[in-house]
Amino acid sequence: MEQGTVRQKLVADFDALPGQLRQAARYVLDHPRDVALLSMREQAREAGVQPATMTRLAQRIGLDGYDSIRGVHAAALRGGEPRGFTAKAGAQVERQKKQGDRALAADMLGRIAMQMAELGEADGLDRLEKAARTLSGARRIYCIGMRSSHAIAWHLHYILSMIGDRSVLLDGPGGTGMDLAGRIAPGDALVAVSVAPYTKATVELARLASSRGAALVAVTDSEVSPLARIARDVVLVPTDTASFLHTMAPAFAVAEILGALVAGHAGDAALAALEHFDAQAEALGIHIQPARKRKASSP
Question: Is pLDDT above 70 for 59?
Answer without folding.
Answer: yes
